[in-house]
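Bug #77: duplicate submission created two jobs. Keeping one. Sequence:
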Amino acid sequence: MTTTAISTKQFMSSEQLLEHWQGHRNLTRRVIEAFPEKELFEFSIGGMRPFVKLACELIAIGGPGLKGIVGKNMEAYNEEAFNPQTKADLLKKWDEETETINHYFAQISEERFQETFNLFGQYEFPVYQNILYFIDNEIHHRGQGYVYLRALGMEPPFFWERFSVL
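Kept job's structure:
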């Protein structure tokens, strides 16, 4: 019997993954900024939630999810924990959660990314897959925001400009 050793190289560092995620968060913040105040809270299509509710879901998942991973706490997330009254409230909380994400992400060792974790007591996957879920969910909801902005006759931010604010 012959065995073959396979050498693998790391595709992306944890710092690069965080930078990628924060690029998406920067773009989602720009989508929030693009909404007129009233439509941010009231406009929807086809029974979907207004964009403020989608943004609040993202706020309830990212920072709290990382805090749970670091503390090995599997509490359910709470979308109703934050209820902004203005766009400024939402943007302030968004920025606070960005700092929370940076804080807790830095506490995850390279080895922990491969550990299985039961996120919010619902999703049992390796830590890196939970983080990719956070990013995928954000992209999904930001896409809904793009549709809303287009339906309102507004040009959304270019999706490829994740790191720049023009």
